[in-house]
TrEMBL record:
Residues 45-77, 94-115 are annotated as: Disordered. GO terms for molecular function: protein transmembrane transporter activity. The chain crosses the membrane at residues 6-24. InterPro entries: TatA/B/E, TatA/E. The keyword Kinase does not apply. This is Sec-independent protein translocase protein TatA. Residues 64-77 have a biased composition (Low complexity). The keyword Coiled coil does not apply. GO terms for biological process: protein transport by the Tat complex. Keywords: Cell membrane, Membrane, Protein transport, Translocation, Transmembrane, Transmembrane helix, Transport. The gene is tatA. Belongs to the TatA/E family.
């Protein structure tokens, strides 16, 4: 699908008519912030995946028991601990995203200096 100069001009004109020239900078700034937050969350998810795989192979500096081995009575449940850690990390990421969104709405820069 090739867009020629006429089609691009019509799209720009329609956007200007719909939003007005005064609101376009705010809309683009908001879109940029949203993309930055989304990009940061995706990076965080990738980092959590890497950490989760590392935790699955080593727990507290010791090798985790193989999956085929039967758990013994009184042994720690590594899988439950990993799931709980993942849940806590997800809650922390969600709280951080809410704080950043609140800060963006109020126009206040977060304490860590990120935007």
């Amino acid at each position: 699908m090739n867009l020629g100069p006429l089609e691009i001009g019509l799209i720009i004109l329609a956007v200007l008519l719909l939003f007005g020239y005064k609101k376009l900078p705010d809309a683009s700034r908001s879109l940029g912030r949203s993309m930055r937050i989304f990009k940061g969350e995706m990076k965080g998810m990738k980092d959590d995946d890497v950490r989760g795989k590392e935790e699955a192979t080593t727990v507290r500096g010791q090798l985790a028991p193989p999956a085929a081995a039967s758990p013994t009575a009184g042994a720690p449940d590594y899988e439950a601990e990993a799931l709980a850690a993942e849940a806590r990390a997800a809650e922390a990421r969600a709280a951080e995203a809410r704080a950043r969104a609140d800060a963006a709405r109020s126009g206040v820069t977060p304490a860590d200096g990120t935007r």
